[in-house]
Hints:
- Helices cover 56% and strands 4% of the residues.
- The protein is mostly helical and 185 residues long.
- The chain has a two-stranded antiparallel ribbon with strand order 1-2.
Amino acid sequence: MITTETTADLYRRLAAALTERVDAVPADRWENPSPCDGWTTRDVLAHIVDTQTQMIGVVGLSVPDGPAVATDPAAAWRHTRDAVQAILDDPATAGLEYDGHFGRTDLASTFRTFYCFDLVVHGWDIARAAGLDDTIPDRDLDLLDAVIAQLGESLHTDGVCGPALDTPADADRPTRILAALRRRA
């Protein structure tokens, strides 16, 4: 099990942690290269905003137009976060079903695994790129471990993480987990 938190509560907690990191990014570091090849800090946040907005669209819902990541990254994130949180807080919208990559599922299940996972991983990317504290709390490492196991080899395909990196035998847990996600701690 990933966590005993509801999907709405898990998203709320992880989104709050990402918000702290986003709000701490100095204006001159949004164009810094990130651990994601070819992406800046701003590109990573744009990816989070865009993919969450697109996922909401899969079930026929939408995130209202709001600030753009290009001009106000923190406001764009808060706008998307709040819209997604309202959807996840409502059991009727959170439970909307669709045919996903792994079969029939619902919006809450997808956010619980993939998009909450993304908040942790890309939160680390943003912190690392901006020179902020990039520590991942133990319970979030637990979440990453669980989702890595659940996604299996599909995690290592093009467009997701790609092949895992090698780590020394004595590498600590964050280093091993990040290496599985093609990131160097």
